[in-house]
Amino acid sequence: MTGAPENDSRFVFLDYLRALAAWLVVWDHLANVFLHDRGRVFLPAEFIRDNITAPLGIIQDFGWFGVTLFFLISGFIISDRARVEGLWTFVVKRILRIYPMLAVALLLSIVLVASKDQVTVKNVLLNLTLANYFIVPQVALLGVAWTLAIEVAFYALTAATQFSRQSPHRIGFNLAVVALVIWQARAFGPNFFLLAATATYLPILMMGQTVYWWLARRRLSAPWGFAYLAAAYAVFLWGVRTIHPDFLPVTNSYLVSIAYALLLFVGLLHIRLPERRLVRFLSDTSYSVYLLHGIVGWAVLGALMTRAPLTVAIPLAAAASLAASFATYLLIERPSQRLARRLTRGGGAKPTLRAPELATGDAAA
Predict the structure, then answer these.
(1) Does residue 359 belong to any structural domain of this protein?
(2) How many domains does the chain have?
(3) Which of 30, 137, 143, 179 has a CA that sits 20 to 30 A from residue 46's CA?
(4) Which has the closest alpha carbon to 110: 93, 91, 126, 89?
(5) Cα distances (angstroms) measured from residue 160 to each of 62, 91, 156, 157, 238
(6) What are phi and psi of 98, to 5 degrees?
């Protein structure tokens, strides 16, 4: 491997990407989305938009770019986990990685953010299981959780093919399933259409999966690697044209940011980056900060924006998000991961990577 030799225990470049992706999403939400909804403008954000993101065709003030990095990372790292874990181990670890922290964030959102008329027992249970993203009417009590529904769909596809966990060509099965769902998007009613809308994003994770099997594990030849990347691009493009056509124009294109993110991902894979404590810390807390910044950060920013300049209020909101994320990482995420290891002890081969399994984020809460 070029990014990490076979005897290395960690792909360090993933830490850098996870940290970057998480804080690009935070930047988008705190410095742009929150203020835009309240008629305020943060001049540094406006400068970056006018001179960097807009000229490059990067939409949503780096938010979607960060989400794309998260999806690529997940496709890559979950492919490694699935390669060495049995079905029981894979499922238990994914559940305990996603849902405990989701439950905490959902509770905080209900208390601090969510519209109280939407807080019913039914809606809470649907949001807790992420089933709300597949049921009409769609009620989201935690706005950023839409990407978790995409992650869970990818886990389900991966679990369905664990019998062939050593085969890189499970990528082809995944893409065929997604293409079939998109093809039948309007055939089985509105709930199935929501499933198809979620499935549209899965080819991005399959790009990360392809990079893993091709460039990291070297189990795919160059023709196969290019073929799977091209097929993933084609299926994603078809899905966007079918379900999300508003994100096709050059001025609002998902595809431009995906191209940049994939180039960065592959480029960093081939660079031996040094391990840094700060980068590792930001990587470890990236899932928590993704879930909490739109709750804790927005609450702090809302309280401060009329009392302090934005150059003070925004950093304080980001700091509060990071502090809350570190606390929940210690109290929720790490104990959940220890429990998963106890429950699955002896249930799979020794991992080859120690990088955290999941990272995700949101670009348009």
Answers:
(1) no
(2) 1
(3) 143
(4) 126
(5) 33, 11, 6, 5, 24
(6) -85, -55
